[in-house]
Amino acid sequence: MTGANQYRPDYDPTICKQLPEYFKDGLSITQVCAWKLKIARSTYYEWKEKHPEFKLAAEMGEEISEAYHEKKLQEGADGLIDNFSAPARIFIMKSRFRTTYGEQKEEKTAGDSLLEKIVLGEVSIVSKK
């Protein structure tokens, strides 16, 4: 392909072989899409839905990226990285790897809170006659 738009629109199953390797230096999905695959991020997610072999390779690659960042966090904690910023690395982990490191927020409704108070004996139900 030549010209200004270098993005490749068609799926090619041969990319699955090298896809996990693209993530080895901790690249994000966006970086792999733009720099390696030359596709839009939306295409990446579309291919994951439509092509099981791509999904498997992509998930393996994403885990390789996560492992890279875990290693960097450990090296920093061990004092092996000069000018290490634990908050910055933790932010990366929580924002990029939400399933593993994201904070779980439990949503409660007003009804849940009232039920919780009744169960805990903080509120009682009084019947009016």
Describe this structure as you would to a colleague:
By secondary structure, the chain is an all-alpha fold. It has a domain of about 90 residues. The protein is built from seven helices and no strands. α3 crosses α4. The longest helix has 26 residues. The chain is flat.
Topology:
Blueprint: H1 15-22, H2 29-37, H3 41-50, H4 52-77, H5 86-96, H6 98-101, H7 110-119
Helix pairs in contact: 1-4, 3-4, 4-5
Mean pLDDT: 86
Q: Write down the overall geometry.
A: flat
**What's the total number of strands?**
0
Structural class: mainly alpha
Number of helices: 7
**Helicity range:** 55-70%
> Rounded to an integer, what's the Rg over CA atoms?
23 Å
Task: Give the SSE order as H and E letters.
Answer: HHHHHHH
- Euclidean distance between termini CA atoms: 81 Å
- How would a textbook summarize the main sheet? none
Flag low-confidence runs. Answer: 1-5
Bin the strand percentage: under 5%
